[in-house]
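User: Before I run my own analysis I want an independent prediction to cross-check against. Here's the chain; please return only the structure tokens and, at the end, one sentence I can use as a sanity check.
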Amino acid sequence: MNNSNHRYAGFKLLVVDDNQHNLFTLRSLVSRHMDVEMLEAESGKEALELARANPDIDLIILDVQMPEMDGFETARMLKLYKKTSEIPVIFLTAAFKTEEFQQKGYDVGAADYLLKPIDDNQLLNKISTYFRLIEKERELNRMLEQKVAERTRELYQANQHLENILRYMGEALLVLTPQGNIRQVNPAACEMLGYDAQELEGMSIGDVFEEQGREQANAFMGMWLEALIRAGALREIEAAFIAKDGRRVPILFSRTAIVDQQGEIDEIICIAKNMSGYCRVDEAESMNPESEIA
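Assistant: Structure tokens:
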């Protein structure tokens, strides 16, 4: 045996045989070579009760020839219950003669067969093989869970970073639906417009945009979307917001369309810079007649 250094501590084995002498032999053999916890049942009924009470059983060694409920029926019943359906079963049999017999076992979920009288080394090797497979699967699951946890942490940190940028950026950010309804805003947008985020979300961009009338606002939105579809982005457009208290807020406005895999607009990102206190150079010059003389 090459498993002397690996005794599979922490594993749980259920052995089912109606013959107490066979159970004693198996117990003695396994305990000599492995540190596994071993449960014993003398009937199929007892095996089912033990398996349901101990869903952490790793492997079942199951005698085929038992009175009342044989090994095949016991295995079939184990497969019916979610908690026990995945436990591998090794059949013990003295009547392993025909393909039909083998197939019957595999049909009810047998993982393997062992012939009686039991060859000690063969039995220990089979048990070791299944425990190694289980160990490998658990290690892969641990690695996968670790990677998922790391990725979740990275995404959380990236999300927090992005949220901080949006929270503290000076420009107003409005995320719109393709129809022009406000989906999301940042604090700067709320401050600029005098609304709470909850009030703004669901409103139309036309509700806060300076427009002479609803028809013009709708026409403007239509032209907007057409231009966005053609160009993907519209930058530095002079416009104005109308705040909640009726104030006119002059802005420099940029819009970018985010498209989905089908090329349809998924959402529109709008960034508005408050231009209050700024004035255009040509306006400043026209207001200063001395500039013409100079």
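Sanity check: Confidence is low (pLDDT under 50) at residues 283-287.
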